[in-house]
Amino acid sequence: MIDEKLQPILSTVLHRNAGEAEFHQAVREVLESLGRVIARHPEYADEALIERICEPERQIIFRVPWIDDNDQVQINRGFRVQFNSALGPYKGGVRFHPSVNIGIVKFLGFEQIFKNALSGLPIGGGKGGSDFDPKGRSDREIMRFCQSFMVELHRHIGEYVDVPAGDIGVGAREIGYMFGMYKRLNNRFEAGVLTGKGLVYGGSRARKEATGFGTVYFVRSMLENMGTDFEDKRCVVSGSGNVAIYAMQKINAFGGKVVACSDSGGVIIDEDGIDLDLVREIKEERRGRISEYAEAKGAGCTYKHGGNIWDVPCDLAFPCATQNELDGRDAKALIKNGVTVVAEGANMPCTPEAVKQFQAAGVRFAPGKAANAGGVATSALEMQQNASRDSWSFEKTEERLAEIMGNIHDSCVQTADEYGAPDDYVLGANIAGFLRVADAMRAMGVI
Ligand code: NDP
Ligand code: 2IT
Predict the structure, then answer these.
(1) Does the global pTM surpass 0.85?
(2) 8, 38, 134, 162: which could form a disulfide with 45 (CB 3.0–4.6 Å)?
(3) Are residues 93 and 172 in the same domain?
């Protein structure tokens, strides 16, 4: 339910951003939490503060022409939404996927504001991407696309302005091509302009692992709060990309057992525990399909083409693929099978109906803006290393990551308690993130 004082703000957002369903969904969820804030502190609704938070500071949409391996000209659309810079330079990933449109980039940018605020680090919120589909493209095509994308993007970003990184379809390879083009166009080695870089030219140790590791650290704190741990817990992790792979690695390290993962083609179930070396070989090296796992393993492993991973019974569920991949029906199936914790490694993978079901059933639910903040937090640590021309050890970086995730967890719990909703991590994350951004914006006046 949205407080009646906030209803007009939502109406304006719906009207001004017609048809952008994912953006509406993300704004609605945050506004639902803010009623309790303005009831207690009405000054946070003054000077159209919440309206201003819902309106991006700047939105850039551009043409990305490139030439494929058959000498054909291809046209894609590029986006960068610079949503909020109250706490620092705009910060957030770039997504290459055919589903990308302005509404999706805006939802991701909006979420990023609060996530970055929760990290406690000096970063504002932004997001970008393109409807480019990297699947089946050669390395040369990827390079030409990334170069063309940067030919436009370079004038809008900078170490003190806006610092992109990876997301779906964008990893170290793409960041390398984009960084190379930025460096050439600007004739300066500005290491802090992008994060997720390769180690040899300014990347941070543990950045690649950070989102998945961070999610699992967050869940470890949740389990501690419940008086338990990962030992012998059955886990299901959707996706098999960057976030999923390193979530699985950390679950294993903490004594849990991952029995299923997936990609957009289907689901693999391996009761012996997913063989991560094989997944990494297929996904990180071959850039192949998860069905190849079952082909390699033979009997003992099941592949369900187009299957639904949420039908696999588990104690802990980690949606780590994409938005709205887990709906009300899936939530019911998980609850029926005894799930106790659900943590979003992806951004907004659970529909509002699914979240409602989990909370009503007493399942602990961690929203993405808290649970997956370890990636962007480690990006901020990469910026810190770049600014001081330093390079930290893996151990030091991971220690900082673990500490940050613990702090985010505690701040969600404390804020939820303070606002009369114990164990409601959604409310805790939204309010704690909002208050940091709002305090900075109030200090800076109407801009
Ligand atoms: P990757 O591109 O590495 O992996 C994405 C995975 O999700 C793949 O297994 C992919 O399958 C699957 N997937 C993507 N789109 C769909 C879809 N429409 N339907 C079904 N499956 C899909 O991306 P990441 O692991 O980096 O990102 C995953 C999620 O985590 C996203 O929501 C992202 O925004 C979020 N995130 C990422 C961070 C990061 O640091 N990378 C930080 C915080 C959040 P297939 O290969 O078949 O497409
Ligand atoms: O959604 C996210 O937080 C990311 N894709 C990571 C952003 C970043 O700047 O590292």
Answers:
(1) yes
(2) 38
(3) yes
